[in-house]
Structure formats: C-alpha cells, structure tokens
Amino acid sequence: MWARVITIALGAWLLIAPAIIPTTEATRIMDRAIGPLVIWIGVLALRAVTRPTRAVNVLAGIALLIAPWLAPITVAQQWNSELAGWLLIALAIPKGAIHQRVGGGWMAVLHPRTEG
Amino acid sequence: MATLANAPDQQALPAPMASKASAQADIPPGWSYNPSAWRDRRWLIALAVIGFAAAAYTALGQFGVVTLWDPFFGSHSSYLVTHSAIERILPVPDGALGVVGYIADLVLGASGGADRWRRRPWLTLLFALTILGLGVVSLALTILQGVLVQQWCTVCLVSAAASTLIFGLGIGEALASLQLLARAHAAGRSAWQAMCGFEK
Lengths: 116, 200
Prior knowledge:
heterodimer, A: 5 helices, 67% helix, B: mainly alpha
C-alpha cells in the first residue's frame, strides 16, 4: 500500500513541480501529462483487482528517464526527471501485499482453472 | 432478458442460514470477497451521485447558467477550463456528456443483485465499458487542463476523482464475469450462453 501512496504523492509532485522549479516548456508539458497519469494508476493499483495497472507507471518512469535526452531541459528538471523516473519504476515493479484474493486475476481469464 | 427461474435446488433452510449460504455462493471461485456485493456497490452509487452533481454543475457553468464556484483556483480559472477550446471540440459541452455518463453509471451500477457477476455477466461487462470510458476521458481532460489550458478547475477534478474511484471499484465484477466465461469456454461450454446468464 505504501508504494502506491508514495506513487500518488510523486504524481502530485510532478503536477506542481513546474510551478516550483525552473522548467522548460517541454518538461512542463511532460510533468503535467505524466503527473495525473501516475496519480490515476496509483489510485487504481491500490486494489488487488487493478494491481497490474502499475505496469503503466513503469512506462511512465522510463519516459521520465529518457526525457532529458529528448527535450531541452533545465538542470533542476533533469534531476527531477531522473529521480522521479527511478523512484516510479522502483515503486511500480514490486507487486506489494495482496489482501484480497481475486481468483487468479486477469491471467485467469487467459488460463482458466476449470472445476473438475 | 429471460433468465432461468430460480432453481429449486436449495433445501428449505431456515431463513438466516439460507441467506448466508447464498451469500457465500455469490463469492466467485478463488476470491476472498464478492465484487458484486452491495457493500462495494453502495460506494459506487454514492460516487456516481457525486460525479453526476459535479458534471451537472459543470454543464450549467458551460451553458452560462451559473458561475462555477472554485475555492482553490478561483472562478476565473474554472471558467477558462470549462470554456476552453477542448470543450468546444465536441458538439455538446463535455459537462453534459459527463451527466449522461454518470447516469449510465448509476443505472448500470445499481441494476442486478449481488450475484450479477454470475447471473448477468453481460451487465457487468457493459458497466465495465462505461466506467472505463468515463475514467479514461476524465484522465484525458485532467491532463489537458494542465498541459493545454494551464488552468485548473476544482469541480472538474472532483469529477475526475469520482470516475477514477468508480472505475477501480466497479471493474472487479467484470473480472469475475470474464473468469466465468473463460471457465465455461475451457470446459467446452458456450461462453456466449454464459454471458447471457445461463451458466451456473
């Protein structure tokens, strides 16, 4: 759960970061686009049913990591991007504690367990 | 939609035992809870009402009937968001579309009993499509708020939060139904029949 809570806080930080640290137009757009997405996924991934959606946050983290090579960026935003990217990926990879069983989850739709 | 009549295969148990037994049977195999239970759906319906109120208020603002109250970003900021070019892309202001979406959420979310993942899979799948659509559109509009309009609107964010939570709460039923269809298909039975509710 804490991984998800920190993820949500990270998404909120990304949203407000362009107003606080020196930012170029490109990184402002990126932060303001990725921030809500990270929050959205973070909230969804709180529950066992939608835990697999955290894969999207791994992609978001990768996008943040490669951003400094793709767009003009300030030093402050470069640090921000890199740190946020790594943190997002680190938080999204572990599955976390499962407090509810969901019958095998979405993989069980592809590989169902049949009754005898 | 025709359903099988309640099968007379339950013994005549005393009422509390019978209802507890059927509540147990309503939990999908391998699950620790029933995603269609009213315990979760109550929240879902409450959130849909909140979302409906937010969307209706936004629509009134977009039609010029009211000035949106915004305690965090100011009414002017809300005005800019709700009257931006994005809102004019569609033939109808998105607040009105939100109203339709939340009404659909309410109707589809409240229909059917606590065993609807099993008896009316088509309903849970339809519901899942609706909440997915509303959730994704809400996210897209939130992103556009920050990226394009560069202003924020509190009521719009409330609606986005509501649709996100509705999505998270409601999608579990669809998973249980899809698992049911997959089990039927793997066992050689018709998944279509299962979707229409003929699977036990």
